[in-house]
Amino acid sequence: MNKTATFYHAGCAVCTTAESKIMELVDRSLYDIEIVHLAQNKDRLDEAEKVGVRSVPALVVDGIPLHINHGADLAELR
Amino acid sequence: MNKTATFYHAGCAVCTTAESKIMELVDRSLYDIEIVHLAQNKDRLDEAEKVGVRSVPALVVDGIPLHINHGADLAELR
Known about the structure:
- Two copies of one chain form a homodimer.
- The first copy, chain A, is α+β, with helices and mostly antiparallel strands.
- Chain A has helices spanning 13-25, 45-50; strands at 3-9, 31-37, 55-61, 64-73.
- A four-stranded mixed beta sheet of chain A has the order 2-1-3-4, with helices on one face.
- Chain A binds chain B through residues 5, 17-18, 21-22, 24-31, 59, 61-62, 64-70, and chain B through 5, 17-18, 21-22, 24-31, 59, 61-62, 64-70.
């Protein structure tokens, strides 16, 4: 069964660029990618923060947050 | 022929975590990854800076720098 990596974003330009690169890079035979728009799904903000996401875009893999460039701080999305 | 993605780092703990995740995530049937230790290869600093790398760890794909978390600013490595 594939692992799931979660990509959190907020629809910003920095997020979009990162998303397109991540979708190209990641080995989809090993990882499914769930894409979460945090500005549109504010009910997921707590979950993202709990795993250590501080800004978007960020990819969470195996519980480890990889912040990819910097679009917006999580606090700005609340 | 595979594309090459270049992972720039400086041997720091943040870099090591990011490197291990990136090596797991990236589809190696599409991308070769070149790993460059910038603190040990300062002659590569100019090249990294020119493509837009501002801090390590960073992965450069198709000329686009993805800064992954934050270990050290490039200026600190000079």
